Amino acid sequence: MAASESKLEASISRVCRGREQGLSNAIFVKVLRAVAVLMLTLLAIAAKPAPHQSGAMVKERYLSPLEIAVSPDGRLLYVVCGDSDEVRIVEADSGKVLGNVAVGHVPRGIVLSPDARRAYVTNAWSDTVSVIDLAARQVIQTLHTGFEPTGVVVDRSGTTLYVANRLSSDVSVIDLGSGQEIKRLLAGRGASYLALSADGRSIYCTHIYPNAGPHRTQPNSEITVIDTATRRVVDRKPLHNVAGVFHAAASADGKLVAVAQLRPKNLIPLAHVEHGAVFGDSLTLFGEDVGDTAQIPIDELDRYYALPWGVVITPDKSKMFLTTAGSQSVTAIDTGRLLKTIRARRKSFANDLSASAEYVSARIPVGHNPRGLALSPDGRRLYVANRLDDTLSVIDTKTEKVLSTIDLDGPRNIDALRRGERLFYTAEFSFQGQFGCSNCHIDATIDGLEWDLEPDGFGKDIVDNRSLENLAGTEPFKWNGGNPDMPTECGPRTEKFFFRSQSFTQQQLTDVVTFVYSLPYRPNRYRLANGEMTAAQERGKVIFERTTTKKGSAIAEANQCGYCHSGPKYTNQRQIDVGTGKDTDRSPVIDVPQLPNVAYSAPYLHDGSAKSLEEIWTIYNPKDTHGVTNDLTKDELNDLIEYLKTL
Amino acid sequence: MKTTLWFGLALLAIASMGAAQDMPMFRWENFTTVNGLPDNHVYSVLVDGNRIWAGTDNGLGLLENGKWKVFRPDPQAKEQSLAHQAVLSLALDKNTGDVWAGTMGGLSRISAGRIDTYTQLNSGLSNDIVYGVSVQGDDVWTATAAGASRLNTRTGQWSLYNAFNTPMFEIWTYGVSAAADKVYYAVWGGGLLEYDQKTERWKDYNDPDGETEMVLMKDQGLIHEITTSVSYVDKIVWVATYFGASRYDGRYWHNFLQKDSGLPSNFLNQIKGVDADRAWFSTDKGLAYFDGTNWAVYRPALGAHKPELYVTDEAGKNKKEIPVQTAPSHNYILGVDFQGDDLWVATGHGLSHGIRQKSSAVVAKK
């Protein structure tokens, strides 16, 4: 098979060279079609889907606990289960599951009302919040939000709900009296998690994607600060060299806020894994205790604690606990020692991994992909959601040991999908546990970054992170199409090049591929509910499908939008030079990307140089080589983009 | 009974005299580059609570707690910066507190210190020269050199309006005023355009005298095709042109010309209605105020530059000079905004703060 693939690559390469050497279009098209048939046949064999794809396997409905809320008396735990679309109610002491409440699709966040009579649960794929009457244990109201609601908090008066919307990058402000969304506040890109300050006056919003910035510059994110009195954004604390920011927690005395985050090192070639030059796992701290923001590492010199995700501060502020979702562990931090270190060092020490020894008090092993965590009201117990185990770990905060594990009654069978997902989210396969697939593909999406992956010198062959949604039928992979199938993409390349460590076994590789191929499209928010298109979308579709210019000249078949972006995934699965290559690219020949949900995956082009869909054509298509667009008016280009968003 | 009747009539007379005859007086404090303004040519001014934004020819100034902060484009910035240094228009989203700045190089959104910039290259904005901007609900309406644009901030969708889909036979839009029911555009050379938010239809209003500068049919339509500014308040449309001003109540037009009103000039840069009866007029020869009956003009006297305030009746007659110690920093007025009873005025040479005084100028009786 490998030999066949090499021949295929060679054939494609020859075809492309032939085009460059001036083969007539007709011959070129015929040859390309013949190669395409051969290629598709081979790839169909090479990328044979795992059994579940053909419908032969019954998909288990795992719970995937993601977040936990604790009742004020500490008696009950409300656990958001992301894959089973429910909230499970658990008796904290006994660990007994008392019941469940069905909510919307892909629930992600939960908060209890100040009087603890209601729970508000965000449903990421329904764009709603389910309001649960906790006494009746049923949903009594559904509130509408922005795109992909995730984090949620309620103000101290219980009158206003704030919801972070990941895809619309804003915060919905909902009046709970009327149930109406009264405004949206501009947040950073990928707004995801919210925390209320101790005095209730401020809300801190964090973001899983970096804000847009100049190409090939260090990523920057922000902490958006909302004033609950005016219900406006009043500050944006910059997070430099940061992308991928998760939970925030505020201390009870109001003097300290901690934020879990990643520090990606995407500007340098991925040739320095052995020197830790891929990701830094860290916290940002701010508040009266530390003054301005301070970033602190949680990794060690020879061991990493990947994907810091959930964070809590004990009521007495003596300790912080942090889930490291890629490392199957919880990191315990002595707050006093941490603050002492910050004050002593003064200068930034985010990259000094020796520092963590001064304040990390324990690494507590827990289950697979630990995410949300919550403290009992007295601060003595810590509950951790092990997302890929369907369990909760119960930790004694004093001894920093796991006391027990609560089984949430998920499916007993661990199938290929779940095995693959665990492999996708773990960092254990990479050198020193530095990172896993999900470091870049955050929550199996993108990270909004451009990476210098190849060991070919600084700034060469820059690549944008591509979406993983519904990949079957979009092969080959990599921006140069160099990996003919998913096993190649996830197998030897990942193991040797990315992880610099042990290989997946054949079974593991199959499991990972099975999981990746299972990732569905997220709901498209730009399509009308009735299935029709807006007038602008209709006009855009005509432009997308046109075969002549506005002056009536024929557009060469290979330069029509629908030629490359064809088929159900809007890719002809070929590699073509559309004039978007840069001087820093080894080859201008680019794999045709799929287009569904393209609106979600900025930046664009193979190197992420186009910050918006518009820039693909207003800046990077001067010679009409990436489709004929220079005869379009601005109105028409806008229409084309409105159509593309619906795909 | 008789006593009561006389007392009532007397009260009514006093009340009507007071309402019609008292014109506001201000003590003017002026800002120039000497005391921190980014540039003396101030295109636009916006009041945002206690904060004052000044859009100048060389930067956006923010006056807060007595200090100026200046925003300009920064090519070295790690994140986005102001679209262009020449800031032509400003609008406040009263719901979110975000400020929108229309510049000579695109549209910028300033939100709690962060600046996001939209241009014709990176977004659906129709043109980078943004003469006017107005916010209504989730929509940001812009008047550009290539027609009107609407950005829905929830969906990110841009809608463009121009000669293809409106009666906009000129696409040089200069001013916009958006409300929940209607959106009005001042189209330079193309009259006034009205967008009905409910029906999503456009309607144009033009000068019944055509494109001539004659006024043959006064009060029968828009005063002139070269419109520069529009203000829609209390269901009344106030329109500024280079050849007079107009007021339209949905049925009747009333035009204001220098020759038969208190306007100091027919050349208007901006108009801003206070309500259905009152409006401020930014002209090249001073700042004018009309209270529905009488006029007042505030300026440095032309030529002499001595502070000047005079009031007239509705027809511009019975002029009365009021002695004053201060005036706006220049007679070339580009825009105003209100801060309670105070005024902030953009001029061709500085920004002026009109601090309302308790005393008022009394109009001479006809």
Could you characterize what this model shows?
Chain A is α+β, with helices and mostly antiparallel strands and 647 residues long. Chain A contains 12 helices and 32 strands. In chain A, the strands form 9 sheets. Chain A has a 4-stranded antiparallel β-sheet with strand order 1-2-3-4, with no helix packed on it. A 4-stranded antiparallel β-sheet of chain A has the order 5-6-7-8, with no helix packed on it. Chain A has a 4-stranded antiparallel β-sheet with strand order 9-10-11-12, with no helix packed on it. In chain A, a hairpin with a 3-residue loop joins strand 19 (279-287) and strand 20. In chain A, helix 9 crosses helix 12. Chain A starts with a helix and ends with a helix. Residues 1-56 of chain A have low confidence and may be disordered. Chain B is mainly β and 366 residues long. Chain B is 5% helix and 49% strand. Chain B has 1 helix and 30 strands. Chain B has one helix at residues 2-21; strands at 22-31, 42-48, 51-56, 59-64, 67-71, 87-92, 99-103, 106-111, 114-118, 130-136, 139-144, 147-152, 158-161, 173-178, 182-187, 191-196, 201-205, 227-233, 236-241, 244-248, 253-256, 268-273, 279-283, 286-290, 295-300, 307-312, 320-322, 333-339, 342-347, 350-362. Chain B starts with a helix and ends with a strand. Classes of the chains: A alpha+beta (647), B mainly beta (366). The A-B interface holds A 146, 168, 170, 182-186, 211-214, 217-218, 220, 222, 224-225, 230, 232-236, 240, 525-526, 536, 611-612, 614-615, 618-619, 633-635, 637-638, 641-642 and B 77-80, 95-98, 109, 111-114, 116, 120-124, 126-127, 138, 146, 153-155, 157-160, 162, 164-165.
